[in-house]
Write a structure and sequence with these properties.
This protein is of the alpha/beta class. It has two domains: 84 residues, Urease, subunit C, domain 1 (Roll); 321 residues, Metal-dependent hydrolases (TIM Barrel, Alpha-Beta Barrel), CATH 3.20.20. The strands form three sheets. Strands 1, 2, 3, 4, 5, 16, 17, 18 and 19 form a nine-stranded mixed sheet that branches. The protein has an eight-stranded parallel sheet with strand order 6-9-10-11-12-13-14-15. The chain has a two-stranded antiparallel ribbon with strand order 7-8. Strand 13, helix 8 and strand 14 form a beta-alpha-beta unit. It binds N-(aminocarbonyl)-beta-alanine and zinc ion (2 copies). One zinc ion binds next to loops. It holds the Pfam family Amidohydro_1.
Length: 463
């Protein structure tokens, strides 16, 4: 039985902050006690004085090795989960994809194959349903039973992942019966494609135009429609990567009515803007993702939503494409730029900076980055907290260390950083995954294959 003792740190969970020693036994948290009050012996002692001891991050939205836009996102499960660990994230939930004409099962099997034996940290899967038909609906029941309890549907990307309103309603009805959670990419893709075609025909082809055609109103309209469909179906709804103030307003209205409607935003919408998309010499391509970055004014609504709990989760939507050779596929036509940003390594630090800057409290940082994603997707209290019986997924965080984000020093397999040159206060020092050190005093000590597939129960966040 391996025992690790973490002494003298400030243990921060979503519920409380307390100075405590933490005893870890056989991969789980065994006990917490007032510092120095117990005579615990241990194989390994970690001095956490002047540090925070926080739950490992739960990033509920990643895309490793995702086929998209004629290429694949550039992080494998091996490189992406290692980078996640460097950034204090100890669980990811990635999206397995059903291909058109294929089954959910075949898609899920393919994602298990990509991930099994390669991950540095624990992982689960959501399922992207891109072909909702009678057999898909039946398969949903089986997947929920075995721990894939959430399904993403796209109102965007016609011809690729798009589902029409009838398909979305059917999937929601099924989820209403089997306990699954429907996640929606809420943008009116049909209308957006008209605007894309018109813009390109006029010769407006720069990355900046990506942000102009994917209008905030079309995100808000789709968000409203998804909410109404979920209401008709009697199912809960989780809207992914919310970026527009108008979409937050729709979520707020629905939540004020008492509906089980939830929203996720991502660091890129909180820290970046259309100014980045407008960077010259095609540099704006680095910031092309959907929903798109918005004018800076939207950020206040997102921060407000996070404080008021109209937005509950911050995930990364990590979907990296190298600038050279991948983003460049869209030179001369912004609509061919593969959509997605890297960020799995940066989320915990950027959100700690939000604590430093006064946007959110320390406990809210842990709530939106660890506890609520675990609850939302059926992993709590195994993940997302530090309590007796929980997995010992623990980060020793130095709140005073200074760092500068750069592609030169990050660990994601991508040739740029969306946050290049940004100065942050706070840095991950040591990371335990089920009690095993994966980062030790800023050295990688993990291994591919340590990370285990983690089946999930159904949403634990409903009214
Ligand atoms: N978000 C993005 O631009 N790429 C990943 C796919 C998605 O989440 O829509
Ligand atoms: Zn999406
Ligand atoms: Zn995504």
């Amino acid at each position: 039985m391996t025992r690790t003792l973490i002494t003298g740190g400030l243990v921060v969970t979503a519920a409380e902050e307390t100075h405590a020693d933490v005893l870890v036994e056989d991969g789980r948290v065994a006990a917490l006690a007032t510092p120095g009050s117990q005579q615990w012996t241990a194989d390994r002692v970690i001095d956490a004085s002047r540090k925070y001891v926080v739950p490992g991050g739960v990033d509920a939205h990643t895309h490793m090795e995702m086929p998209f836009g004629g290429t694949f996102s550039s992080d494998t499960f091996e490189t992406g989960t290692r980078a996640a660990a460097w950034g204090g994230t100890t669980t990811i939930i990635d999206f397995a994809i059903q291909s058109k004409g294929g089954s959910l099962r075949a898609g899920l099997d393919a994602w298990h194959e990509k991930a099994d034996g390669r991950c540095a940290i624990d992982y689960g899967f959501h399922m992207i349903a891109s072909d909702v038909n009678e057999s898909t609906l039946k398969e949903m029941d089986a997947l929920v039973e075995e721990g894939v309890t959430s399904f993403k549907l796209f109102m965007a990307y016609p011809g690729v992942f798009y589902s029409d309103d009838g398909q979305i309603l059917r999937a929601m009805q099924r989820a209403g019966q089997n306990g699954g959670l429907i996640m929606v990419h809420a943008e009116n893709g049909i209308a957006i494609d008209v605007l894309v075609e018109q813009a390109v025909a006029r010769g407006h082809t720069d990355p900046r135009v990506h942000g102009e055609v994917r209008k905030a109103l079309l995100e808000a309209e789709a968000t409203y429609r998804a909410i109404k469909l979920a209401q008709v179906a009697g199912a809960p709804l989780y809207v992914v990567h919310v970026s527009a103030a108008e979409a937050v307003a729709e979520l707020t209205r629905a939540r004020d009515e008492g509906l089980n409607v939830f929203g996720e935003t991502c660091p890129q919408y909180l820290f970046l803007s259309t100014d980045n998309l407008a960077e010259p010499d095609f540099e704006g391509a680095k910031y092309v993702c959907s929903t798109p970055l918005r004018p800076r004014e939207h950020q206040a609504a997102l921060w407000r939503g996070l404080r008021s709990n109209d937005l509950q989760v911050v995930s990364t939507d990590h979907c990296p494409f190298c600038f050279t050779g991948q983003k460049e596929l869209g030179r001369g036509d912004f609509s061919k730029i593969p959509n997605g940003l890297p960020g799995v390594e940066n989320r915990m630090d950027l959100l700690h900076q939000a604590v430093v800057d006064g946007h959110i409290s320390r406990r809210r940082w842990i709530e939106i980055a660890c506890a609520t994603p675990a609850r939302m997707f059926g992993l709590y209290p195994q993940k997302g907290t530090i309590a007796p019986g929980s997995d010992a997924d623990i980060v020793i965080y130095d709140p005073r260390a200074e760092q500068v984000i750069s592609a030169e020093t990050h660990h994601m397999n991508v040739d740029y950083s969306a946050y290049e040159g940004r100065r942050l206060t706070g840095r991950v020092e040591t990371v335990l995954s089920r009690g095993e050190p994966v980062i030790s005093q800023r050295t990688y000590t993990g291994r591919a294959g340590h990370g285990a597939y983690t089946p999930r129960s159904t949403c634990q966040y409903l009214n």
